[in-house]
Write a structure and sequence with these properties.
This protein is of the alpha+beta class and 340 residues long. It is built from ten helices and seven strands. The chain has a five-stranded mixed beta sheet, with helices on one face. The chain has a two-stranded antiparallel sheet with strand order 1-3.
Length: 340
């Protein structure tokens, strides 16, 4: 367990105790303050409970709702209104506990300062929790990256794809097919990409798309009449950067599960579009659950993996992606939007 994770967990454990002790101190503070004075504190406990409820209301409103807001300026007027309303309602109820008139302006100003003070205290607590949480997420991301690098040579290379593609190249070579050199070059480029750019944190869209297109070309050649691939790609800013191999798991699985189906002419669709900071990916392939039993276990487990890709998306693009994976009749569909 990392130090940051341990510190974050400890803070989560003691936080309820912190809240409890804080409000007990706030409730009893006037009694301790006036304990040594003649007559002590002359207001009833219900007065302090009333004041405490209003302090807690505005504090937790800020803590749980306002502070987590991404754009705080847009909701600031609502917060100011809530604080003023809280002070006004409290002032109305508080007047029933005083026999003599008190300076209402001064009282309102003091209550405002009190609310601001509690707001600062709870904002400090929120920042502390958020900093520790971000450190934990960063350390998890580093650990995931390290694990991915260690497993890269095993996890990212699908041995079945390698052997089958090499068999295709070999068969073409025996027939003196003029496409053989091109297939060898694309296969070489694919593995070079996996073992070099695939290990980087970010690559340009142009490189990622080129790798995808090489992979699709090799699969189309390998599967021949088995599949019909509809592929279109529109990239407006090829120099934009993206984490490598995020789309490959979906493309790889589309070919993997289509290739085991009987018959020919199975249609696979891939659509990629990038506009401004948005990248859209769509894939659709035929899928029959019964056919899964025909897949060799090692083949099923090979490749990059959709679950691994989900985790990478959550870590690299938190709150910046929308992934939908679902089955519709005999079709397997993936829709992914990423804010780059």
């Amino acid at each position: 367990m990392t130090k940051s994770k341990n510190a974050y967990q400890q803070l989560q454990k003691i936080e309820p105790l912190f809240h409890l002790l804080l409000w007990i101190i706030v409730l009893l503070y006037p009694y301790f303050k006036y304990a040594l004075k003649d007559g002590g504190y002359n207001l009833p406990l219900i007065h302090e409970i009333n004041a405490l409820l209003f302090k807690m209301t505005i504090s937790y409103f800020l803590y749980f709702w306002y502070f987590p807001q991404k754009n705080k300026l847009t909701t600031l007027p609502l917060v100011i209104t809530a604080i003023l309303l809280n002070i006004s309602i409290y002032e109305y109820f508080d007047q029933f506990f005083h026999d003599c008139e008190h300076h209402i302006i001064i009282h309102l100003f003091n209550n405002l300062l009190t609310n601001i003070g509690f707001g600062i205290l709870f904002y400090a607590l929120y920042l502390l929790k958020n900093i520790l949480k971000k450190q934990v997420e960063l350390e998890l991301l580093i650990q995931e990256k390290q694990k991915a690098e260690i497993k890269a040579w095993k996890a990212q290379v699908n041995p079945h794809f390698l052997f089958n593609t090499l068999n295709t190249v070999y068969a073409n070579a025996l027939k003196n097919d003029i496409k053989t050199p091109d297939l060898i070059l694309k296969l070489s480029d694919s593995f070079r990409y996996l073992f070099h750019e695939g290990q980087s944190d970010q690559v340009t869209l142009s490189k990622e798309i080129q790798h995808i297109e090489d992979y699709i070309h090799l699969q189309k050649e390998r599967l021949a009449n088995k599949v019909i691939v509809e592929y279109d790609c529109t990239i407006e800013h090829p120099k934009k950067h993206i984490a490598p191999l995020l789309l490959m798991s979906f493309i790889e699985n589309a070919f993997k599960y289509t290739s085991i189906l009987k018959g020919n002419g199975h249609r696979i669709q891939f659509h990629i579009k990038q506009d401004q900071d948005q990248l859209q990916f769509f894939s659709k392939n035929p899928f029959h659950p019964k056919a899964l039993n025909e897949i060799d276990h090692s083949w099923k487990e090979s490749g990059i993996g959709i679950e691994s890709t989900k985790k990478r998306l959550q870590l690299i693009y938190p709150n910046q992606h929308d992934l939908k994976i679902f089955q519709e009749k005999d079709l397997f569909i993936v829709k992914l939007n990423i804010q780059l």
